Amino acid sequence: MTINATLINLYHVCPRECWLHVNGINMEHTSDTVYDGKLLHETSYPQRNEKHSELSIEADYNHVSLYGKIDFYDARQKIIHETKRSDKVEKAHEWQVKFYLWLLKLNGINDATATLEYPLLRHTAHLSLDDGDVAYLKSAVTSIARLKEDEQCPPVIHSKICKSCSYYELCYINE
Ligand code: SF4
């Protein structure tokens, strides 16, 4: 299997959501969201577009393929720019970006950093990757690969985020 940033993000939010996604039960239309994020970046930061390029990057960890597509990478400064439309700062967004930093590191680019930008909030977070982050990402990748093989769907998490999850009706149909 190939693990990408979407799976890292979902795993951080809810292992059940990740299991449903890796098993092909997909109720989200992520392509629109991705397009929306790119459009937001281009309209919010038009002056930055010339020095940024799109970067597809692959690596292997523990016999699992990893893949990421970074929309805006400044190769000269070694900075990833990721833009979120969200009006909330979320930890899962950080893990998505740190996953990209890890992929760069696995490809020999060791000291890259990232900026995570929320134009609607006028907030920017500056991120780098430390040993603890790498340990978390390794364990997340191992857990996601195991989840894929697990026939049993993880339990419902009963969290307030469930109400805004696309699987809400599926998870709570009997409650
Ligand atoms: S509704 Fe809740 S338990 Fe179900 S997949 Fe979404 S976040 Fe997870």
Overview of this protein structure:
With 175 residues, the chain is an alpha/beta fold. It has one domain: Lambda Exonuclease, Chain A, CATH 3.90.320.10. The chain is built from 6 helices and 6 strands. Helix 1 packs antiparallel against helix 2 and helix 1 runs antiparallel to helix 4. The protein is globular. The protein binds iron/sulfur cluster (SF4). Iron/sulfur cluster binds next to helix 2 and helix 6.
Provide the fold topology.
Layout: E1 2-3, H1 5-13, H2 15-22, H3 30-44, E2 53-61, E3 64-74, E4 79-83, H4 91-106, E5 113-118, E6 123-127, H5 131-149, H6 168-172
Parallel strand pairs: 1-3, 4-5
Antiparallel strand pairs: 2-3, 3-4, 5-6
Helix pairs in contact: 1-2, 1-4, 1-5
Iron/sulfur cluster (SF4) binds at residues 14, 16-17, 156-157, 161-162, 165, 167-168, 171.
List keywords for this structure.
6-stranded mixed β-sheet; Lambda Exonuclease, Chain A; 6 strands; 6 helices; binds iron/sulfur cluster; 175 residues
In short:
With 175 residues, the protein is of the alpha/beta class. It has helices spanning 5-13, 15-22, 30-44, 91-106, 131-149, 168-172, and strands at 2-3, 53-61, 64-74, 79-83, 113-118, 123-127.
